[in-house]
Amino acid sequence: xxxxxxxxxxxxxxxxxxxxxxxxxxxxxxxxxxxxxxxxxxxxxxxxxxxxxxxxxxxxxxxxxxxxxxxxxxxxxxxxxxxxxxxxxxxxxxxxxxxxxxxxxxxxxxxxxxxxx
Length: 117
What we know:
This protein is mainly alpha-helical. The protein is built from three helices and no strands. It starts with a helix and ends in a 10-residue tail after the last helix.
């Protein structure tokens, strides 16, 4: 297995995994953002921004991968370690988004919805 193929596998797995996870959390994040932002257009912007951050940060870090292993077994564990690091960067980005949403939810007043009669 050559190093270019190892690089391509690692980048492909990183982008695929982060895209799938971002797609999974998108509806939940969108609902929270609609509530916080007040309009669906504003919430859509922040949802897209969050998705770019969640996929882009691990993607950029994945492109910095330089395979060093020479055996198939070594490359497997090297790729697994890099994927673990990319998922950690995904979680870091997710936590940062969560902190921003939390601060926004705590300190920005929202209009009180009228009770339905």
